[in-house]
Amino acid sequence: MFDLGWTELLLIGIVALIVVGPKELPVLFRKAGQFVGKIRGMAREFSRAMNNAADDTGVGDISSTIRSAANPLKSSVDAVKNAATDYATYDPETETGRLAGERADQAKKIREHAEKKAKDKLHNEKVKNSNKKGSKKRKSAKAEKTSSLKD
């Protein structure tokens, strides 16, 4: 960390022995050790908190996305493996399988209902158009009769 070799540590120890004295030196080293231990514990806690914050924000997902973008062949193979695993583990007897079946039935009913409504609407429009054409023909025939009677 501070790039101290044995010679620097020996020099620091000799200076501490002279300045502090031989009786107080073990107490000083014990306190220094406790202080360094507390600093290391705080650094571990800080590092753990940063890793948790990174996990919460999805940095791991982003890094995996970047890795998969760098190697698209591997990511596509992994996607196929995941799909095969998901298909192999699908069991229609489970709650999920039952719900999937119900949703498929509901989707089918919705499609059938929409088709029926579309056919009904198309039929109604055809009937309206034919009525309009018929009434125009009747009006034009009536107009021709009245004009021929006037002549």
Produce a short descriptive summary.
The chain is mostly helical. The chain has helices at residues 6-20, 25-57, 59-70, 72-88, 95-150.
What is the typical, i.e. mean, pLDDT? 79
Q: Give the overall form.
A: rod-shaped
Low-pLDDT segments: none
Number of strands: 0
Question: Largest beta sheet, briefly?
Answer: none
Q: State the end-to-end CA separation.
A: 119 Å
Strand content: under 5%
Q: Report the helical percentage.
A: over 70%
Number of helices: 5
Radius of gyration over all CA atoms, rounded = 43 Å
SSE pattern, N- to C-terminal: HHHHH
Structural class: mainly alpha
* Overall tally of structural domains: 2
Can you offer a commentary on this structure?
The structure is a single chain. The protein folds into 2 domains: 1-56; 97-151. It is rod-shaped, with a radius of gyration of 43 Å. The chain has helices at residues 6-20, 25-57, 59-70, 72-88, 95-150. Helices cover 88% and strands 0% of the residues. By secondary structure, the protein is an all-alpha fold. The protein is built from 5 helices and no strands.
Topology, pairings included?
Elements: H1 6-20, H2 25-57, H3 59-70, H4 72-88, H5 95-150
Comma- or semicolon-separated keywords:
2 domains; mainly alpha; rod-shaped
